[in-house]
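--- STAGE predict ---
source: upstream dedup step, 1 unique chain passed
mode: sequence only
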Amino acid sequence: MRPVNAANEVGAQIAEALSQVPDPEIPAVSIVELGIVREIGLNDGVSWVSITPTYTGCPATDVIRQNVRVALDQAGLEAVEIRTVLTPPWSTEMITLEGREKLLRYGIAPPEPASGQAACPRCGSRNTMEISRFGSTPCKALWQCKECREPFDRFKCH
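--- STAGE serialize ---
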């Protein structure tokens, strides 16, 4: 997230409110940590936040938008506009370091673009393999550790 004008009071309030909104499919991470919150801005006296779904057609997009609205309203920020931005598309590179750590603790292997091999979130072994491109959600694949034999989700790198 590039928090434009987060230095001003309203921008900081928006950022704080959104940092408390969990991803509906992975409640261990916030939408900020997942990189869904793209930008916070202020133009001509109008505050806004832009969000980007993890992929076009993500079934959680409407829920995320509703949760953002509720969080902003509860913080007294009813006038803040919510904008959906599709370009450039969301990328796993947008997940924050804290978000990656939380994914790992939650049992989901965070994306590692530089490495084709996923580390098992349970035992840490890199002796793993993809067993299906289709995981618990469309943005994840199903992997298995050859050491501890546990299956786990891994974010698809895109």
